Amino acid sequence: MDTTRILFLCTGNSCRSQMAEGWARHILPSDYETFSAGIEAHGLNPSAVKVMQEAGIDISRQQSQTLNDLDQKQFDFIITVCDHAHKTCPTPEQGQIILKRFDDPPRLAESVKTEEESLAIYRRVRDEIRVWVNQLPSQIQQMSN
């Protein structure tokens, strides 16, 4: 059985790509190996960690990293979770690139007044990522045929 290696790529590797990696490790079968990285490493976003813990997924031990931290790993699929990463990340030469946009919770949360309103944004994006990751194996299978 071959392993499918997936990289979730975003700008700071602090929120969306981290949540996607967490969901993928939890949901996808063992023949998938998942990673996340960014243009820069901004550190794990505490609100992302919190809302993932609410869903039973612990991403607190994941590391915020850049492509350079991945030791030239080869990927079958590189999934960019934002336009900025899709346009500006120096992506590895191998692998099919998939753009899947998700709203940026930290940016959206800047305009709200309470922590609960902020967390509601993170929860919505968390759940959107979960739904999409659930569908990922069938999408990959279609792309591979």
TrEMBL record:
<dbReference type="GO" id="GO:0046685">
    <property type="term" value="P:response to arsenic-containing substance"/>
</dbReference>
<feature type="domain" description="Phosphotyrosine protein phosphatase I">
    <location>
        <begin position="4"/>
        <end position="139"/>
    </location>
</feature>
<dbReference type="Pfam" id="PF01451">
    <property type="entry name" value="LMWPc"/>
</dbReference>
<protein>
    <submittedName>
        <fullName>Arsenate reductase</fullName>
    </submittedName>
</protein>
<dbReference type="InterPro" id="IPR023485">
    <property type="entry name" value="Ptyr_pPase"/>
</dbReference>
<keyword id="KW-0059">Arsenical resistance</keyword>
<dbReference type="InterPro" id="IPR036196">
    <property type="entry name" value="Ptyr_pPase_sf"/>
</dbReference>
